[in-house]
Amino acid sequence: MTDAMEQRYRRALRWYPRKWREEQGDVVISTLLAVADGEDRTTTRLPELLNLVATGIATRVGRVVPARARDRISTVALGSGAVLAVVFLIVHTWSPWADLSIDIADAFPTFGPFANPGVLLYGIWVVGLVFGLLAWNRALQYTMIAAAIVPMTLRLVNHLQGDTWPGPATTTLGFFLLLAFCVLAGTPASPSRIAVIAAVTLAAAYIVYAMNGVPEAHYVDDRYFWSGMAWSYGVVLMIFVGLMAAIFLGIARQRELALLVLGALVPWAIIAYAGAFRSDAWNTLGVTCLVIVAAGIALAGRLAIRRSRQGPPPENAKVNARPGATVWNSTNW
Question: pTM of the full predicted structure?
Fold first, then answer.
């Protein structure tokens, strides 16, 4: 059974970079096996495997995005995601001002007093917000792992049932899945910052919903948010402004702030791209190719400028010279 446990641990460690596994993998596995032996266990536990997976992903991301930037992205994702979850729960799932038996029950089954099982997902985010405000980071990590699993489970179950529930929409599930990954990428900075992000998100959501006349007497599903309110109030414009801000921050050598802006935009950008692709696949692919070409040209130009600033190598330099060796030429005689 120990061999089987070791194989399971090694499979979980594949989420870590190869170099990390070569340097520390055996030590980690030995420690895990020793702990299991001390607890008189002959099988692995799901929480420890999930923890290895989450930590492995974070380690891979950490090679590109510094820990401080990831913590800030995690803070923004938790604060904004939890507030949006509460908004979606109240407006698009519960709708206490609407008569669900009239609005949707004739066409779709309800989920108890709720219009759909989205309450399961949104409730997890509320619990995660509480853990974040209490700075219970380990509990928050497990909660966000659940928040990443539940959207996929809900979509699968609804599909197997023939899409009988009126929601949550696939876009909503994908959005909260991406937000959960953003939270797992780091550790929220502080409860006060989480509270500030939550307050700002709540104010923005109130303005957007109020300007659209929501809530109203009838039930409004979450698809209206993406097809109506989000597009009407400039998700694409928000992404464009955010990208410009990230570029200027990068030019100003504020790398961590630039990464924060880009990280906060990732869920919105992916959802916007998916929506555009569904609406007009060919034009979306064309724009994507243009962006890739432009990015390649910009990168090549940057590399050329950097090389030109370095200047030519010294005349006496030898590429294959050993460190500390004397380089001889005619001037040495």
Answer: 0.73
